[in-house]
């Protein structure tokens, strides 16, 4: 009788802690008498049958590494029924009956669609994204590490801003979610954060300048989410140059610096707990859920809820940042 396997892949943008999750899924599965196959390059590799069995030694010495040993990719083919059919053929050929997907919103959306089309494949998601925008989990794998990187970078930028009496706009990742920008601004002592969730009739730039920088400060840092809704740091810098030409303005776009680096202790622990949680969910007969963390407890969140519900930001942080930036 042919033995069945659990498949594991990482998809979308990489996030520090993915390797810790791969390690946890693999070793927890083996401990519980299950076998694991790693799928390289995400859904693209699943379509192309880039699959290899993993054992305990294959995931040794990776918990401290950033990125993902399984590589990752974004797959246009998997967005089509034909591509998903090829992926299903690979799973059948490799005797994979359960699939653990580590990724963000797009990756879990793909998992939900695939699970609906092929009910004999059990899909379990792990929230691996620096954006922290998946509903139902307090935090996502990679978010804490990215946040610490932002704070480290802003601390260094502030030295230059202060030395030259400059106004810096620092752009961080987050897509349409402002978690990195808002929490990074509070942690780094920035004067303001421009985020998609803080849209009101008031002009955020005008409010900021009149509140703090224009009245009391010679240098200042504003952290801006890369969101298309807010048009990014360059947009605001150009506005200042036009509307407030007396200020010396600079822009720093942190970009992929935020994705790399050794994962923080918190991300390693989170990824280990969620990876083990994926195997426990399979043993319990769960299917088509994301494994999250809520109030420091493992939680199972249906795919539809995790990807379709907007995760709210803590609006009290907006008030706190405003008060502390005077």
The oligomerization state is single chain
Spell the H/E element sequence.
EHEHEHEHEHEHEHEHEHEEHH
Biggest sheet, spatial arrangement of strands: 3-2-1-4-5-10-11
CATH architecture group name of the largest domain: 3-Layer(aba) Sandwich
**What is CATH's topology name of the largest domain?**
Rossmann fold
Estimate the helix proportion, in percent. Answer: 40-55%
**Low-confidence runs of at least 5 consecutive residues:** none
Shape: elongated
Strand content: 15-25%
The domain count comes to 2
Euclidean distance between termini CA atoms: 70 Å
* SS content category: alpha/beta
Describe the biggest sheet? 7 strands, mixed
Q: How much is the radius of gyration in Å?
A: 22 Å
Question: What is the typical, i.e. mean, pLDDT?
Answer: 91
According to DSSP, the number of beta strands is: 11
Report on this structure:
By secondary structure, the protein is an alpha/beta fold. It folds into two domains: 5-142 and 263-308, Rossmann fold (3-Layer(aba) Sandwich); 143-259, 3-Layer(aba) Sandwich (Rossmann fold). The protein has helices at 18-31, 42-48, 81-93, 105-117, 143-164, 179-188, 204-216, 232-243, 265-283, 303-308, 316-324, and strands at 5-10, 35-39, 51-54, 96-103, 122-127, 166-172, 192-194, 220-225, 248-253, 289-294, 297-302. The strands form two sheets. The protein has a seven-stranded mixed β-sheet, sandwiched between helices. Strand 4 (96-103), helix 4 and strand 5 (122-127) form a beta-alpha-beta unit. Helix 6 packs parallel to helix 11. The radius of gyration is 22 Å and the shape is elongated. The termini are far apart. The mean pLDDT is 91.
